[in-house]
């Protein structure tokens, strides 16, 4: 297998399969797209790293969509980073932002864990095809764990698909400039026989004492091997520009034989627009819209994702809304 992607694998996700182990997966590399997303907001390093992990995980999951829809990862928690939102609009658009307490971030320990910064709360993963009927959301509890552990918990509880995830974020320095990179790999066990993916039931907690003893279900040998190989991946291998996704997959699975498919590009792009802003304004009452007018006599709205500022004339807003209502 050739190393066809080389250094050009940045900002792309590479699907693959290892048929002898009955596993499929994706590997992602984020470079300039992630750096643009993070540096636009000037996030502290600890926040940038957490948001970089969330972005890599979102692309790994969202890239599996077979339709033009949106995959969203969102956390709400009590940690120094109390909100993370990452949108992946299939097939290739990524945007993200984080809300944080600057004082608590400054007081955090050196090199804090992702779980320490998120704290306790929830992580929601939403698939949205554009209608309420086609919207699906899975939620897992955050209890001081990071995104890797939360993803494992999500697939174990909601999808019941044996899954392994590795994520990493790093800084690169070139020509006196610092930039961020992220990488990740997701592997899932998908054999043709459903019996091979049986997993032990979740702990019933305070269930009755006379409940049946749970059968001891061992893991399939192929999945044990695949997990062990993925667990050997070092952080630097996921983010090193000299180690393409294709090269990494060859390192991991060459003895079994790995098949890679066409890489999917990823780009950083917000989906905000003046039309969307006007649609949002319609949700407010005339009194609320009047309260939005600043001392300069204008309505200023800033997109939390891309920081674009929309400077609106209140009279024009009311005229446009009135005209659209009359259509």
Describe this structure in words.
Helices cover 31% and strands 29% of the residues. The chain has eleven helices and 14 strands. The longest helix is centred in the first third of the chain and has 18 residues. It is of the alpha+beta class and 327 residues long. It is globular.
The total count of strands amounts to 14
Tally of structural domains: 2
| Molecular shape | globular
CATH fold annotation of the largest domain? Hsp33 domain
Q: In the CATH hierarchy, what is the architecture of the largest domain at level 2? A: 3-Layer(bab) Sandwich
Largest sheet: number of strands, sense, barrel closure: 6 strands, antiparallel
Task: Give a brief outline of the structure.
The protein has helices at residues 32-39, 45-62, 102-107, 114-118, 147-159, 221-230, 235-239, 245-253, 274-281, 286-291, 314-326; strands at residues 12-18, 23-30, 70-77, 81-89, 93-100, 120-128, 136-143, 163-174, 177-189, 259-260, 264-265, 267-268, 299-302, 309-312.
Task: Give me some keywords for this one.
disordered N terminus, CBS domain Like, 327 residues, Hsp33 domain, 6-stranded antiparallel beta sheet, 29% strand
